[in-house]
Amino acid sequence: MSRAIFIRNANQLVTLQGSSHAPRVMGEMSELGIIENGSIWIEDGVIQAVGTDEELAAKYEARLSEAEVVDASGKLVTPGLIDPHTHLVFAGSRENEFNMRLQGSTYMEIMNAGGGIHATTRRTQAATHEELFHESFERLNQFLRHGVTTVEAKSGYGMEWETELKQLEVAKQLNEKHVVDIVPTFMGAHAIPKEYKDQPDEFVRLLIEEMIPKVAELGLAEFNDVFCEHGVFTPEQSRKILETGKRHGLLAKIHADEIEPYEGAELAAEVGAVSADHLLKASEKGMKAMAEKGVVAVLLPGTAYFLMAESANGRKMVDLGVPVALSTDCNPGSSPTVSLPFIMNLGCLKMGMTPAEVITATTINAAHAISRGGEIGSLEVGKKGDVTIFNVENYMKLQYSYGVNHTDTVVKNGQVVVRGGHLVEELSLS
Ligand code: NIG
Ligand code: FE
Q1: What residue's CA is closest to ligand 1, atom 3?
Q2: pLDDT at site 430
Q3: Is 105 left (phi over 0), alpha (psi -120 to 50) or beta?
Q4: Does the Cβ of 115 fall within 6 Å of ligand 1?
Q5: What is the mean pLDDT for each group of 10 consecutive residues in the chain (430 residues)?
Q6: By 3-state DSSP, what share of the chain in percent is helix, strand and coil, each rounded to 5?
Q7: Binding site membership of 286 for ligand 1 (Cβ less than 6 Å)
Q8: Strand ranges in 279-336 using DSSP code E only, listed in sequence order
Q9: Going by DSSP bridges, is the β-strand pair 422-423/415-419 parallel, antiparallel, or unpaired?
Q10: Ligand 1 atom closest to Cα of 332?
Q11: What is the rounded CA–CA span in Å between residue 422 and residue 140?
Q12: Is the CB of 157 within 6 Å of ligand 1?
């Protein structure tokens, strides 16, 4: 049995209580359930009590000396942040393309000329399992230093079975070896490999007849994702890919309407996807269909920023009743960052969301975007002891004071893993 942790006397304790069953929409996204002078008691990795410091000090009076006390006075305490869309496991970087884009090349031109996703695919194919593991482990450490305790991670830099399998196996090993939890997604449908350029349906056949069934059988992914985009996978091919995944027990996610309008949001609603992501060019009809079906919009304003594009209309989606989550999209091409707090700032300034809404979008709604709403994303009795303490007095200041990592302490499964902004020693494995 692990030692109890008593986080005491936060200036603001953001609980987000009461939304374990469904993501928050519209006005609910602004209700943070804040407790002033708030405290939490965590034991055996699970939250046992949440309330004012006075209440908890009285409740645990007889056991105070047993617990490890974390003083949060003057600070902001939130549920551990959740990143519901990352391409965590990859090799190398693409700063050369960044330079090319600054001189006028576009993201799609670079990809169609054999760079972009294809470039990272070659690097990832060439990397050993160990190399990929170490590179991704270090990225996870960085996520943790930014207050993130759970990330979704996609394959998709393989585009052939061996490398897709290698990425998913690395993700599995990371989940076992690193304290950050990983939710794995199969994204074999990330691009059409060069050798299938003239017969893309043949690659789709390979995905639906061979790869998806094998991934499901091996239990290596929970979700199945596709890049539905003009020049990549058509809505028709995407539908087949997602429906096949569902038949094999993989929940659907979709990269939708990122570069051009393509009715991806509509498709997400039609196939009952858990989330549709990107949505820069989503139609109002598509947004309304998502709202009706409760499909979570995972918005990635860091990608729009990095590709110098107009962000998705987060404000409109919230107002139409779409449950909105935010994510880094961490990947080497369109969003090489692990800073979810920076993404929160962009959510405010580039998408018109309020500081309260972006907190909801990176906690409880992000949990729902990866089907974890019952376990994480809020601070309430019975949920995992995943908590982030920021060195700011209130939740608005977290977004306002941007470009600074305010993460002070992170508690994961009831253990302090970041203290004073640094990983605790035992964690520095790599
Ligand atoms: O989510 N849009 C497609 N896939 C990734 C980018 C991957 C890459 O450029 O390596 C994205 O933006
Ligand atoms: Fe992505």
Answers
A1: 227
A2: 46
A3: beta
A4: no
A5: 92 97 98 98 98 98 97 98 98 98 96 95 98 98 98 97 98 98 98 95 98 98 98 97 98 97 98 98 98 98 97 98 98 98 98 98 99 98 98 98 97 98 76
A6: 40, 25, 35
A7: no
A8: 296-299, 324-326
A9: antiparallel
A10: 10
A11: 13
A12: no
395 lines ligand 1 (CB under 6 A): no
Rounded Cα–Cα distance for residues 352 and 122 (Å): 38
Which pLDDT value is given to residue 191?
A: 94
DSSP 257: S
| Residue 12 CB neighbours (<10 A) | 24
Q: Is 334 in the pocket of ligand 1 (CB under 6 A)?
A: yes
Residue of the CA atom closest to atom 8 of ligand 1: 333
Whose tokens are 């490398």? That residue is 163
Look at residue 427 in the predicted model and tell me its pLDDT.
66
In this structure, the dihedral spanned by the alpha carbons of residues 379, 383, 389 and 395, taken in order and rounded to 10 degrees, is: -30
Q: Which helix (H) or strand (E) holds 417?
A: strand 415-419
- In sequence order, the β-bridge partners of residue 256 are 228, 278
Q: Which atom of ligand 1 is nearest to the CA of 90?
A: 10
Length, in residues, of the chain: 430
Ligand approaching nearest to the C-alpha of 190 = 1
Q: How far is CA 401 from CA 263, 391, 394, in A?
A: 37, 11, 11
